[in-house]
């Protein structure tokens, strides 16, 4: 358990007032080595959640003056100068819900995104590969003639988002903001009540070490935080320091991702420009396959499957991989299981038709095709196939005295509903509002009573969405046509015929 000294729990006295009282003695003294640099908010982690928080604090007039720092292990200068050819796309792409988009617009980050690289979609087609039952969501049908086409979500490369957030922070000026990249937090401990300095007992004090020669020379080695925010991902050091427990399990599944090019759609969509996301649940293969649209007939693939299948897919030639993606949206479970075990051809025959391609062509002739399949995958971007382990984690609370967790440090969920990063954006919106409220009401931003509001707003919401994704994963992992398959197909078919229930589900998916 994290030990908090008694002074951290007694009524708050502003440390700058305390140091002001002794400033006469300290005015000319050089700063002793052991005195850490003091910040109002220190964020560990420069992923979308950490940078989102910093951008939000800089955007609000109430919090822009706070002295804030962010520590990130990786080189954020590389993230700032990230650039890809216009026909290439990163394989880490997230579907941002309308709520996340409005938050990013509100904090002024959206205008820094390269919008030629994002893709909205208005329609979602989801079906069960085992039973064939399906559901489709069409937000364009709900759009009135006087408004822009409503979207289900906007596909955005994570790197595009990170670069935009960095630009937004940079545009807010250097004053009071320090970004230490190529720097890792190697330890965190409670500070001490220094006889000649501020009382930092109960304040987290971070030891920061450079991770390479590119680290900034101005980087302090010790930083004290009035409020320490853990945006440091699934293995959060901040969460360990605060001794916050997590529940969870590994799904024993991997998410295979890739950037895929698609053939021209067979039918013209109406309204013109409508784009569709496709997801087919494959219970016998361990999870769903999803194709989500990117600009110019490109798409991002997320195929959640067993570790063995993921390893198999990653070793296939591009032709065989494309054949498997097309098969996964078109063939029966039995055919797919067979193709997933086919021998891989020797490299020497890679120029001729791949056995996976011929197998698909032959089997397609004997398989009736449903109406909702995506256009054929025709190419795969070189080097874009990768896989990530899928896990569920939920912290027992998001706060502790002078500590708050956001994003994957607080919760990691199955990606089948594309909600992980969106939940992180929701956390950041809520925590930045909490800090804003505290500052404008003269409260201490690190006080547990201040932070209560944040955890109360976010914990149950995230538990509900993470839990729903977990139930869906489990429900759609029961193979065969038994009672579970019957119940889930009945559920989907009934929902598909009830416009009000569907509308309600869509509202929830939009965030
Ligand atoms: C296959 C897949 C598909 C997904 N698709 C979607 C989707 O469509 N929509 C969606 O909303 N979400 C999606 N997600 C989830 C989403 O990618 C994550 O939720 C999101 O990226 C987490 O962001 P974060 O900033 O919280 O954490 P991270 O991106 O993990 O950032 C944490 C940062 O902390 C830094 N750090 C860690 N330790 C230290 C330390 N000691 N010192 C300094 N820095 C440190 C790390 O270097 C890292 O940069 C998907 C996930 C997967 C696996």
TrEMBL record:
Residues 39-263, 383-464 form the FAD-binding domain. InterPro entries: FAD-bd, FAD/NAD-bd_sf, Ubi_Hdrlase_CS, UbiH/COQ6, UbiH/COQ6_monooxygenase, UbQ_mOase_COQ6. SUPFAM superfamilies: FAD/NAD(P)-binding domain (SSF51905). Its EC number is 1.14.15.45, 1.14.15.46. Its main location: mitochondrion. It is a peripheral membrane protein. Pfam families: FAD_binding_3. It is found in: Mitochondrion inner membrane. It catalyses: a 4-hydroxy-3-(all-trans-polyprenyl)benzoate + 2 reduced [2Fe-2S]-[ferredoxin] + O2 + 2 H(+) = a 3,4-dihydroxy-5-(all-trans-polyprenyl)benzoate + 2 oxidized [2Fe-2S]-[ferredoxin] + H2O; a 2-methoxy-6-(all-trans-polyprenyl)phenol + 2 reduced [2Fe-2S]-[ferredoxin] + O2 + 2 H(+) = a 2-methoxy-6-(all-trans-polyprenyl)benzene-1,4-diol + 2 oxidized [2Fe-2S]-[ferredoxin] + H2O. GO terms for molecular function: 2-methoxy-6-polyprenolphenol 4-hydroxylase activity; 4-hydroxy-3-all-trans-polyprenylbenzoate oxygenase activity; FAD binding; oxidoreductase activity, acting on paired donors, with incorporation or reduction of molecular oxygen, reduced flavin or flavoprotein as one donor, and incorporation of one atom of oxygen. Its cofactor is FAD. PANTHER family: UBIQUINONE BIOSYNTHESIS MONOOXYGENASE COQ6, MITOCHONDRIAL. Belongs to the UbiH/COQ6 family. Component of a multi-subunit COQ enzyme complex, composed of at least COQ3, COQ4, COQ5, COQ6, COQ7 and COQ9. NCBIfam families: Ubi-OHases. This is Ubiquinone biosynthesis monooxygenase COQ6, mitochondrial. The lineage of its organism: Eukaryota, Fungi, Dikarya, Ascomycota, Pezizomycotina. The gene is COQ6.
